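User: I'll paste a sequence; please echo it back and then give the predicted structure.

Assistant: Echoing your sequence first, then the prediction.
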Amino acid sequence: MAYATVSSILEQLASIITQEKQDYVKLVVGVDKEVKMLRTNLEAVQAVLLEAEERRLKEEAVNDWLGQLKDTCYDLEDVLDEWKTALLKLKIEGVHENVLVPKKVPFFPFSCFNYKRVHLRHQIAIKIKDITKNLDIIALERENFLFRPTLTSENFEGVQNVSSMDVSDIYGRDAEKNALVRKLLEGGEQVRNLHIISIVGMGGIGKTTLARIAYNDNQIVENFDERIWVFVSDPFDELRIAKAIVESLKGSPSKVVELDSLLNIIRESIVGKKFLLVLDNVWTEDYRKWEPLYHCLKNGLYGSKILITTRKETVARMMHSIDIITINPLSEEKCWELFSKIAFSGRAREECENLEEIGRKIVGKCSGLPLAARCMGGLLRLKKHREEWLRALEELNRSEHDILSLLFLSYQLLPSTVQQCFSYCAIFPEGYRIDKEQLIKLWMAQGFLGLENNMDMERVGEEYFNDLVTRSLFQDFETDSDGNILFCKMHDLVHEFACFIRKNELLILEVNALEGPDRDLSDRKFYHSTLILGVEAPFPLSICSSMKSLRSLLILYGVTNYQSMNEIMPRLFGELTRLRALDVSGNIWYENMVLDIPKEIGRLIHLRYLNLSSLKIKELPEVLCELYNLQTLELRGCADLKSLPQGLGKLTNLRHLVNEGTSLTCMPIGIERLICLRTLSEFVVSGDDNGDKACALKSLANLTHLRGSEVDVAKEAELRNKNLLFLNLNFEKHAEEERVNVDREGERMDKDELVLDVLQPPLSLDRLEITYYRVSMIA
């Protein structure tokens, strides 16, 4: 992972120098010597990083050295980003303020800078010199560890056409599966108490897989009125579990914030119904936490069942399990069957026979754990040569053969670029339903997919994701009708391992209503954080003051009545100025409170990913258009948002504008400058009342990289030249006009027909939707 970070910095450094030469601008002067020294030291350090990563687990001193390198590299990345952003700002302001950067001038003169620009370039120079000194010390310290230089080019071969192959089949578990289904189906009058069944076994043994197979069995689906699946984990949060049960029963999130009220809703909702509730991955042995739910769930019909998965038999007995099914390791033959299905997928028979002897020895190291067999099978599926299989076996012979050692081997053999993408997944809570598109955008925001001028970053992200799928590091896939993966999860042990890799820079912070005063978080330097707010939980303002190094902040499940977010957000945006990804979407701050995005958002100059979806926002500040590095702006479901900032065209790095479900009346002038745009969910064509503030549809002609778009009408947009996959022609706004002027109905329908006549969809189109065409909406 460190190797990829250093490689990225070297690329950024080279890119900035090249950009200055191309634009005949010398923004930061007096640092030529330092820049040269930076490159020398980075290349020297890079040469030993592969061995350092291997030794970090067993040698604390090496781990500390890598930590110092990581901190310095992050600081350097931010300084280079400031430098690059200042260059970009000069270029953009030259267009928008008619102050063109002089051509063929070797040095951009002082007189053309205002005071802030002079101060900025001076600060950048000072930071570069300080970082050079730190990196010089780190480069010298590497000699103490006697590393062997192992430079590599690490050519990554993308995995094409990966399907979400179902490797969760039951191997050697037929008896357990049949017994479980039989126990779930039995019951009725003879089982008077709440029937609780527990599956018990060590991590990676296949408890959740067995439960999932039974949960989706046709007999089970037909036998129960309600089926509910809740991932529990540690700690046992009664409120969150109750909310998840209510959401499943009602089909939508609940705004109820009190445990007793939620329990009453559950109690009333299951009256007269036979239900199956699965509580996956339970750890607590405290009966007081379980008791309120236990009594609440007694209200269902006889025959209702609760199925628990846990690693500890004491948990099963605490929860009054009537039946306990203990899962033992797979036989070696069944483990081989699972491994070979994955590892030999797509190989010729002769090749499989040549590798079988080594493969069986590797399976012998998996200790009968299905997760280990899947991970090793996924790892070796991509290894083409016998020598590579032998090296993997040698590594296993040196390891302790536990599941974490096997996962570490699989991780070590990932390309370093994919390593950082995998470990970043630790930012999601355990059991989280990961949106593949969001994940790729977050990788992109952190710079894992290459420099901003790489037009194929999304494709690279797709290849990295497919590689992780192939190695069985994701599971529980949800796909579309064509088999494309939309969502996935990580096994709890795989997630635990990802957290271990990022342990010194990741914080998942849970805050509940009973939380005391803000905790002091200044004792460690965190770079990525997920904040999970409980019901009526106070917002931890310590994040703003103590965690200023944060690069990612995801705020999940937020429901707070403690402080107005309109008071909190200025501090949030004003102090966490190193953020590259910020997600505050879908949180319920106040049910009817309109949020004002403060001007302090303009300080987030490093921001690449901003997700404000489903928030009550009426407008966005113009200063948002100074976030020149922004790649993704998510506004999905912001129903009160009626306009976008007029300076939107300055966001020349914007690649994804997701604005479906808003109330936009037009698109701002300048959108045609967003030539990097890949996603534009809606393009709204305005009426005459928007005048020169609105952008005409023909502006789409310049946006040649668009991959998908929903538009109200399609005319003069040269859609035939786009790489569109999905097109929605929505004539709803035309139909609404009839409510104002009934006489225009015939005219409007003729206009709709004309639009369809001029439309020439591109050959790349997979799906075309036409809605409200020639439909009258007169009340």
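The first strand starts at residue 195 and ends at 200. Residues 95-113, 160-168, 710-715, 734-749 have pLDDT under 50 and may be disordered.
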